[in-house]
Amino acid sequence: MRWAFLLLASLMLSGQRDAILVPEVSQNEVQVRQGFTGTELLLFGAILDPAGRRAGAEYDIVVVLKGPAEPIRMREKERFAGIWVNAASSDFRSAPSFFAVAASRPVEEVVDDRTAAIYELGTEFIQLSPSGQIDPEKERRFAAGLVEQRERLGLYKEDMEGVAINEQVLYKARIALPSNVTTGQYTAETFAITDGRVIASAVAEVEVRKVGMGRFVELASQDWSLTYGIVAVLLSVGMGWVAGRLFSMI
After folding, report:
1. 207 has which bridge partners?
2. CA torsion angle for 64, 111, 116, 192 (degrees, to 10)?
3. Residue 96 and residue 84: Cα distance in Å, rounded?
4. With contact defined as beta carbons under 8 Å apart, do 95 and 73 qualify?
């Protein structure tokens, strides 16, 4: 299996001059059903030169898995007259719903901060695209709060020893998707790095989608939003009435 993969990769490299990554993902589609408890993706591949041989120089691999971007508003709480109230807030236009980084060794040992920021090689380098004018210090504070919040939910993570490299040709990494992942298109971008420089990169895609009853409810809420809202209200009222009747009989 391993040599068949390398042969296929070498055929794909015909006519190429630079070293290139050939990435693969164990699942191109993740189906979220009722009772979904999460899953694990295996990201693997090879880096070869045009002749199909090993790339030559020692290199590091960093894999970045990102979920669909979404706008989000972060708020701060402050104590006023003995109670906690909403205070300052900041809007971000493109916060990844999921963000995970796996590397063959710590990113700070592989590239400088500028390169890490360009390729988003870590949670501190996520490009959140704040909207409006915002003080840089305030932006950093809110960005750190967003990362910390999503780390607690298991949606942002780093594993700086999560990539295994075999004979400087094959690599593999495992990234866990928790049960609370957002559905949509995910991108797995792999970077090969030598002497602090990205020498090759490649992207693989994974679709996370709901199936079964969950899929029906999701489509209904989007395509028939008014009907969905009315039915949801009626169900809530009905369940409340039934619960009230049951308690009155006790």
Report:
1. 29, 185
2. -30
3. 28
4. no
Cα angle vertex 206, ends 204, 212, to 5°? 165
Measured distance CA(26)–CA(141) in Å, rounded: 37
Residue 126: CB atoms within 10 A of its CB come to 22
Please say whether the dihedral angle defined by the alpha carbons of residues 195, 197, 203 and 207, taken in this order, is positive or negative.
positive
How does pLDDT run across 197-226, given as a tens digit for each residue? 998 899 999 999 877 544 445 444 555 566
Per-residue pLDDT of 74-87, as tens digits, reads 877 666 666 766 66
d(CA 170, CA 189): 16
Other Cβ atoms less than 10 A from the Cβ of 149: the count is 13
CB contact at 8 A, 43 and 64? no
pTM: 0.74
Per-residue pLDDT band for 100 (boundaries 50, 70, 90) equals: very high
Q: Confidence class of residue 15 from pLDDT cuts 50, 70 and 90? A: very low
Residues 6+ apart with CB under 8 A from 243: none
Measured distance CA(95)–CA(141) in Å, rounded: 15
Confidence of residue 167 (pLDDT cuts 50, 70, 90): confident
Q: What is the dihedral of CA 120, 13, 196, 194, to 10 degrees?
A: 140
Cα distance between residue 242 and residue 250, in whole Å: 13
| CA–CA separation, 107 and 115 (whole Å) | 10
CA 188 to chain centre: 8
